[in-house]
Structures are given as C-alpha cells and as structure tokens.
Amino acid sequence: MKRRSLLAAPFLLAATSARAAVPEIRFARQFSMGYLQFNVMEHHRLIEKHATALGLPEVKVSWVTFNGPDAMNTALLSDSVDVVSGGIPGLVTFWARTAGTAQEVRGISALSSQPCLLNTRNPALKTIADLGPNDRIGLPSVKVSIQAVILQMATAKLFGRENYTKYDDLTVAMSPPDATIAVLSGSSEVDCAFSVPPYQAQQLQKAGVHTLLNSFDVAGPHSFTLAWAKAKFRQENPVLYKALMAALREATEMVNADKRAAAALWLDDTHSKLDLGFVADVVSAPQVSWTMAPQATLAFARFMHDAGSIKRVPESWREMFFPEVQDLAGS
Q1: Strand partners, 192
Q2: pLDDT tens for each residue of 261-273
Q3: pLDDT tens string 155-170
Q4: Residue 233: which of 6, 31, 75, 117 has the closest Cα?
Q5: What residue spans in the chain does CATH classification 3.40.190.10 cover?
Q6: Distance of CA 215 to the CA centre of its chain
Q7: E strands, the chain, where?
Q8: Would you state the pLDDT for residue 67?
C-alpha cells in the first residue's frame, strides 16, 4: 500500500496542479489609437467581469505592446501571446499561411475603421506621383503593415499592377512616435510618415506638413485594426473565449457611448502629453468608426494574392474569421 501511494503521488500532484491552474489570456497591441476597446477592457477589467459571470472566478489577463505585425505574429506562433491585433494585412498573411493546419489563425473581430494618412513636410510633394529617390517614408513595418500595402495598392493604381513595388525601397520601418519626430524635426532623411492616429493628426498641426494620401481614397472605408488568434486557443478555452467576445462587445459599446472617456484611458495607458480635447476629436473624427464588423478585408486579400504576397485567397471574408462575427455586415 505504501508503494502504491508513492507511485500515485506524482499523478495526484499533477491533477491538483491542473485544477489549480488559472486560465490566462495574453493580449498584444501596437502603437496607435486603434485599440480603444483594449484600453477599456483593461481599465474596467471586462475580461475578468465576464469570465466570472460565466463561471471562471479567476483569470489572468496581461497586455504587451509591439511595433508592427511581424513581431506580434512571431509571438503568436510561439504561444507567447494569445490575442494579437493590427491591420488587415497582418491577419490576411497569417490566415493564408496557417489555414487548415494545427497553427490555424483566424480573425476574432474588427476594432475600428479609420484612414491612415501619408503626411510629408516636403513642399515639393503634392501626390505620391511626386515621390523621388531621396524621399523616405516612415511606417510601422515595410511590405506587411497596412500602410505598406495601401502604398502598394495606390502605386498599382497609378503606375499599373506590375509596378506596385515602385516605392517599397523608400519605406523605412519606424514606430509611429519615432516617424512623427522624424518628420516634425526636419533633421531626418525621413520626410514622410504613413502613420496612425493620433500621430498623423499631430503631424498636421505643424505648419508645412500636409497629406499626400488618405487610405480611404485608395481602398474605400476599411478596417484599421483587427484582433486575431489561433483556432487552438478558441477550441481549448471555450468559456474564456466567450468572455472575450462579451468583453469586446461591451467595450465597443462603451467607446461609442463616451468617446472622450475612451480617449482619456488611451492617454493614461500611453502616458501621452497630448491634450485630451485633441485626442477626443481624433477618436470622434468623421471618418472614424468603432465597430466589430470587418471592412474591406476581402479586397486586401485579393490584392495581396494577385501581388504574390499570399498563396491562397478566400472566397468570402467570413473564411478568415471565427463564427462569432460572421453574422455582421462585414466585407
């Protein structure tokens, strides 16, 4: 009997440890004002609130910030994070790469729809057709960020699809804050910034800085930020995933109900010194909407497939998203 109990002890300890394990969800976001729902969820502990309501009295929630989609998706594939967020190309790339595999990635929902602005301090530039070999464009990530793909789409419209990479060599990977400093300082070779809110609006406050390109003029209204995860995470954590969706819905409602309050949370999280009134105006700008419905994701996927960036293209935007948002009026 003593020998049997000694042999059983490791299994009893393992079972006790498994029962004691606290469910965990780890979020990754980037530098921009495209993740207000995450700010609201963090401050108001909405994941914890809905998890408790669904029978999970304890849940560990953590947040980390990345610059650009490459590092985030690497972290996702290595299981260092569970939910990542960014622009449409980041989701499209990893959906196409992982669909049908054990690493399959799909979209959770959209977070916002708003344009990216390509701004410059160079008075000689009136449109992107004026860009020359000495110009440099700071953007979050070359080739794969939403800004980089929008630039390729605009270039293809102007010079033909075969020339869509014409301006790729002008792009430089920089965080939005750094790109803003480069353009405003005038001392950097980077004279253009294809950025994100609120930094793009901050750039336009300086005399002489003007907009070369509005992404809505290229692709129409499109999702600016989305959230995605591995199918495995959703399958293995059904209750926690349900809490995530409930938290996202509530956070979206809260942002739309009081955009100034959401702006204040963003300022608090980023320790920004921007004026609250300025940031609130950015959050509620006419072309900005806070919605879980994906927009123009299929159009991006088709362009990226035609350009050879991805090897498969979905027949519908719904193929790239989990069922919970497939009844929304997306595209």
Answers
A1: 120, 137
A2: 999 999 998 888 8
A3: 999 999 999 999 999 9
A4: 75
A5: 22-114+222-325, 117-219
A6: 16
A7: 24-30, 60-66, 83-86, 105-113, 117-120, 137-139, 171-173, 192-194, 210-214, 223-230
A8: 67
Question: What top-level class would CATH report for the domain 22-114+222-325?
Answer: alpha beta
Burial class (CB in 10 A: 0-12, 13-18, 19+), 319: middle
* C-alpha span between 103 and 88 (Å, rounded): 19
Contacts of 165 (CB under 8 A, 6+ apart): 152, 155
CATH of domain 117-219: 3.40.190.10
CA gap 148, 144 in Å, rounded: 6
Class of residue 63 by CB neighbours under 10 A (exposed 0-12, middle 13-18, buried 19+): middle
* Ordered DSSP codes for 223-248: EEEEEEEEHHHHHH-HHHHHHHHHHH
Q: Tokens in use for 50?
A: 């809905």
Beta strands in 98-173 (DSSP E): 105-113, 117-120, 137-139, 171-173
Q: What is the DSSP letter of 204?
A: T
Distance between CA atoms of residues 90 and 29, nearest Å: 12
